Each structure stands twice: as C-alpha cells, then as structure tokens.
Amino acid sequence: MEQQRIGIFRRIFLAVTDFRLYPYVVKERTTKAIGYFFKLMFICSILLSFYFMTIAQDFINEELVQLEKKVPDFTVIDGELVFSGDAQIEISPMIILDMKNDYSENVPIESYPDDKIYIVVTKDLVRAGNSRKELLYPPISFKEVTPLNKAEMLSNIKLMNDDFAMKAYFYSIILVATFIYYFISRVWMLLMYIMALLVFDGLFGVKLRARDFLKLSIYISTFPIILEIFAICIGSKYNPTANFISFLIAMVYAFYALRAMRLDAIMTSAIGDTPEEKIENAIKNAQEELERQLKEIEREAEKRDLKELEEKEKEEKEEKEKQEDEKK
C-alpha cells in the first residue's frame, strides 16, 4: 500500500476489508495508532450515547403517558402530598404511589415486589432505590416543593423533556460516561489481543517490536468493536458465546494481519524498497553515519585531552625534580 494520508473513516473501512493496511500501519508512529484508537472509541461512544439517549427518551415519554393516565389529581400543600384515590397505585413497573405510609414509618423499598429500581412517592417524600440500596439520597421532601398540582407537574416535566439545552446537557453526560467506560473495557481487550499476537508472531517469525504489537492489536479490534456496537444498538443482551465469537473473529484478523506482514517482508526483499522507503532509509543511514562520526570525534577529543593532561603532569613532575636537584 502506498504511503499516503488516510482519513479515520477510510482507516476503519480498510482495517475491516483490506489486510494490506496492516504492514502499512506498523511502519507508522505509535502515536498515530493510539490516536486512531481514541477516535474509534469516540465515534462508538457517540453512536452508543445516541442509542442510550433514545431509550431514555422513550422511557420518559412512556412514563409521562402512564402518569397522565393513572395518577389522580393531587396537590402539594404545606409540605404534604394530598390526593383522592386508592391508598397504593402502581403507575408503571418502576413507579409506585404509596399513600398508606409516610417516611417516618420507615417502610423499606425492598418490601415492594421483585428486585427492580423503584421510585416510591409517599405522603412526605420521594424515594428511589431497590432492595440493595437507596439511590436517591437524601430523599426529596415535599416541604421543599412549592404548592403544586398534577397539571403543573406534567407541564413542567414535558417542558424539561422538550428543552434542547436540557437534552444536550444529559447527552453530554451520557457521552462522557460512555466514552470512559467503553475505553477502559476495550483496553483490557487489547491486552488479550497482544498476548494472542505474541503466539502468532512466533509461528510466522515476523519478529515484531513491542510497540508493533500495540499497533496491530488496535487495528484488529476494529471489526469486533463494530459488531459489538451493532449488536447493542439492535437490542442484543450480554451473551458469553457472542463474546467468544467476537474474540475468534479478532484472532482471524490477527492471523491474516501477520500473514500480510510476512508476505510484505518477502516481497520487499525480492523487489527492493519503494522510492519513499529508499529516501527514508537514506536519511536513516545518514543520521546513523553522522552519529557515528560525532562519537568518533568525541573519542578523539577525549584521547587528546587525556594525552595533554599526561604531558602536562609529566612536565610538572620534571620541573619539580629539577628544582629539587638545584637546591641540593
């Protein structure tokens, strides 16, 4: 492959479809491969964040419908929720209105069925959590809420839900959290790929340098990452078998990547270097020769200084002996 500038999306495409890319990227700087990995993670985080934001938006819209249908008219007066209706209402699988109790009676959230995350609204507080822990701490007290009724509450929620600035704020939070989590999880994946590349390198005898293993592991991870993002976005759940298949796909890419590098080495030795490689090698040889000459000059200077020092010491010694003889 010719030495040329390749954009991020073309790199992603070639990393999946063309094994000739791998001998090319190994010759690049390590920082370029790391930059590619950061860009790939950022693109994946953007896609995942849009997916998570869509799910959150659908959930909020669905909850709004349920709130409008099932929640009776209410008011918040003097720090207490008052409404006419059943003592306990399940608005949705996640929201429960419980007017039988107040927080002072310390009714645990785990007393509600199943092991889901609940938002429990009592006479005086709003609580959130599950059987393991309270997720909203401290709970929201109605004493901190201005007089409110059902129509005003739904209007405020819809206004916040439709506000572009609010959506952008939540999306930025989701994006940052997704990027950090996904980046860390993929770094562990790269370590596994590097260990596999060490085995394949022994089989092919390519004799890669340590930094080359990092570069190759980054590029062979491209297709498994794309598959994972696609699976998440179509709603697939965690499956150990799917993860194992993804790892096998990466190993296939590792095998053919090293095979491409081996063939590239054979072809280079057979037909010689390209003009760009000849220029690069000439520059490298010139630098090595200059370094060798500088070291030789330094050695000669050290020898000369040492010789002059010895001669000076000898002269001083002879002068001292001559003075002593004259005194005698």
Describe the overall structure.
The chain has 328 residues and is α+β, with helices and mostly antiparallel strands. The chain is 67% helix and 9% strand. It is built from nine helices and eight strands. The strands form two sheets. A five-stranded mixed β-sheet has the order 3-4-5-6-7. Helix 3 (30-70) packs across helix 5 (164-204) and helix 7 (222-233) packs antiparallel against helix 8. The termini are far apart. The model has no long low-confidence stretch (mean pLDDT 78).
Write the layout of secondary structure elements.
Layout: H1 8-17, H2 21-26, H3 30-70, E1 74-77, E2 80-83, E3 88-92, E4 95-98, E5 118-121, E6 125-129, E7 140-141, E8 148-149, H4 150-162, H5 164-204, H6 210-220, H7 222-233, H8 240-271, H9 275-327
Parallel strand pairs: 4-5
Antiparallel strand pairs: 1-2, 1-8, 3-4, 5-6, 6-7
Helix pairs in contact: 3-4, 3-5, 3-6, 3-7, 5-6, 5-8, 7-8
The gross shape turns out to be elongated
Radius of gyration: 36 Å
Runs in which pLDDT lies below 50 for 5 or more consecutive residues are none
Largest beta-sheet details: 5 strands, mixed
Task: Please trace the helix and strand order, writing H or E for each element.
Answer: HHHEEEEEEEEHHHHHH
> Got a strand count?
8
Q: What helical percentage do the residues reach?
A: 55-70%
Kindly state the mean pLDDT as a whole number? 78
Please work out how many helical segments DSSP would assign.
Answer: 9
Strand content: 5-15%
* CA(first)-CA(last) distance: 87 Å
Q: Helices and strands: which structural class? A: alpha+beta
Strand order of the largest sheet: 3-4-5-6-7
